[in-house]
């Protein structure tokens, strides 16, 4: 009953002229509106609120009492109408079963979940591992069903395997693998004759970093041009430097540049960040560190329970 009556809400408040009353909101149904108007003849529709306004100091209490008496019957009537409509024009799909309500069972898909969350009264049932949709929501489910069924088909394991095989066969797949391998090395090319200071927050074409060590490993020109196009070696040689993301504390203590970097500094590949850049990097670092702390706390909690 709680899942159903939550579709009706009554909130005590004053009208614009200060008169006491309550607002009532519920899904539109002609018969429901007629019964509501019969029970509350002084109620008036408020366009600014998108709801009904019932005057009176005890309006909210009277509205909730009416809801508890009437709403079950209203929903049962709506279910009967939806069931009759389904018999007249059934919705046939391998993803849909008919029981006391409509049972939607599909492979997991974010698109399916997003669509079903927009269907009134639809709910996830962990016991049956399916979505349960009452017949009163048939028309909205029918309207969204083409998108739900298409997303479900795409989420089938065989379809996923086909897409994965197609992705691996694409020419750009090798490029993605090479890029991922280069990223895992945590290196950045720097000119051999213009090495960056270690342990300081610096800005690069990859964002703010802290260089920990210069390995001296030569970065081939074709590799630099492919993955680090902003860095120019000129007539010199590019060597690898191991980098990491700075912590929030390091970003707070970093000294900002007074002005934007010039062409010579950006071609070199590293330069001192401005206060604008540091502020944005601090915001991101703080968010990342909060998320990590939350995950660690959750993991400690789960270990304590076990």
UniProtKB/TrEMBL annotation:
Residues 1-21, 152-189, 282-306 are annotated as: Disordered. Residues 152-183, 282-292 have a biased composition (Basic and acidic residues). This is HARP domain-containing protein.
């Amino acid at each position: 009953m709680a899942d159903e009556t939550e579709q009706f809400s009554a909130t005590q408040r004053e009208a614009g002229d200060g008169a006491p009353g309550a607002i009532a909101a519920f899904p539109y149904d002609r018969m429901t509106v007629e019964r509501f108007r019969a029970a509350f003849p002084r109620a008036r529709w408020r366009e600014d609120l998108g709801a009904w306004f019932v005057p009176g100091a005890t309006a909210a209490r009277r509205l909730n009492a009416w809801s508890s008496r009437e709403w079950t019957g209203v929903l049962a009537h709506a279910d009967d109408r939806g069931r009759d409509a389904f018999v007249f024009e059934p919705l046939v799909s391998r993803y849909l079963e008919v029981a006391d309500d409509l049972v939607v069972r599909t492979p997991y898909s974010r698109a399916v979940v997003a669509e079903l969350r927009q269907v009134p009264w639809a709910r996830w049932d962990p016991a049956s591992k399916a979505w349960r949709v009452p017949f009163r929501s048939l028309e909205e489910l029918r309207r969204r069903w083409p998108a739900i069924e298409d997303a479900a088909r795409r989420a089938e394991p065989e379809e996923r395997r086909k897409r994965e095989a197609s992705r691996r066969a694409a020419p750009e797949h090798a490029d993605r693998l090479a890029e991922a391998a280069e990223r895992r090395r945590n290196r950045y090319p720097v000119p051999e004759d213009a090495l960056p200071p270690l342990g300081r927050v610096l800005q690069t074409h990859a964002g703010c970093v802290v260089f920990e060590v210069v390995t001296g490993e030569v970065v081939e020109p074709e590799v630099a041009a492919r993955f680090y196009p902003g860095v120019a070696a000129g007539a010199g040689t590019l060597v690898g430097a191991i980098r990491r993301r700075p912590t929030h504390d390091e970003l707070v203590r970093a000294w900002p540049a007074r002005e934007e970097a010039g062409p010579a500094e950006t071609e070199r590949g590293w330069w001192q960040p401005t206060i604008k850049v540091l502020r944005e990097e601090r915001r991101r670092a703080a968010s990342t560190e909060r998320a990590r702390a939350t995950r660690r706390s959750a993991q400690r909690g789960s270990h304590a329970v076990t």
